[in-house]
């Protein structure tokens, strides 16, 4: 089983094509077979290297899983932040960035028969990676919202708001939906509604 992804994983720690190839292959194996059924032998075969060679780079499959999560999230963060500061209406930029940051990842996970297991494993193994990713995403969204408010001459603090609080609330809403298993259509609809509220908060008097 091969699950299509937005783009291949790039190595986020060093310019090592072999490491990047391992992470890409491992992601496909985890999506196809789940975490518990995947072995180091499975990953080594997928990359076409020996198991000892794989152990030279990673301690175990949990180490590989964490590296896969870190690479995927870093790529999604970088892509989303780039989209946030392109030309165009704020609402369109926010939705494009959310799609790149979250909804593309949701689609990958939900298309896997082992998606629920992978989400649980991710919480157990890479919760700090996810927390760091969220912090970076909130910072990018807050900056985009703040710059738009400044461009429009809107002082959010006079309305009891801030760019940071709006960005935090947006991700809180999405996390709540994810916890309820409503990541795909419902998540996108909720995100669009909240982005509309952000636009209303930025409306000039």
UniProtKB/TrEMBL annotation:
User: At the top level of its lineage, which domain of life is listed?
Assistant: Bacteria
Record flagged with keyword Transit peptide: no
DNA-binding span(s): 39-58
Q: Which UniProt keywords are given for this protein, alphabetically ordered?
A: DNA-binding, Transcription, Transcription regulation
Span of domain HTH tetR-type: 16-76
Q: Does the keyword Transferase apply?
A: no
Please report the name of this protein according to its UniProt entry: TetR/AcrR family transcriptional regulator
Q: What is the lineage of its organism?
A: Bacteria, Pseudomonadati, Pseudomonadota, Alphaproteobacteria, Hyphomicrobiales
């Amino acid at each position: 089983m091969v699950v299509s992804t937005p783009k291949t994983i790039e190595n986020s720690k060093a310019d090592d094509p072999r490491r990047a190839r391992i992470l890409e292959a491992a992601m496909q194996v985890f999506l196809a077979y789940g975490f518990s059924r995947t072995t180091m032998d499975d990953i080594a075969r997928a990359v076409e290297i020996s198991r000892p060679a794989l152990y030279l780079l990673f301690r175990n499959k949990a180490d590989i899983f964490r590296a896969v999560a870190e690479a995927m999230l870093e790529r999604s963060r970088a892509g989303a932040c780039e989209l946030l500061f392109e030309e165009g209406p704020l609402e369109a930029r926010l939705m494009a960035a959310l799609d790149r940051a979250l909804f593309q990842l949701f689609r990958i996970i939900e298309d896997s028969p082992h998606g629920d297991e992978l989400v649980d494993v991710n919480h157990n193994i890479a919760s700090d990676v996810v927390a760091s990713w969220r912090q970076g995403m909130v910072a990018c969204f807050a900056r985009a919202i703040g710059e738009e408010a400044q461009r429009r001459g809107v002082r959010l603090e006079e309305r009891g708001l801030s760019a940071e609080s709006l960005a935090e609330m947006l991700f809180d809403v999405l996390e709540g939906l994810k916890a309820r298993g409503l990541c795909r259509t419902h998540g996108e609809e909720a995100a669009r509604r909240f982005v509309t509220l952000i636009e209303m908060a930025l409306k000039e008097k």
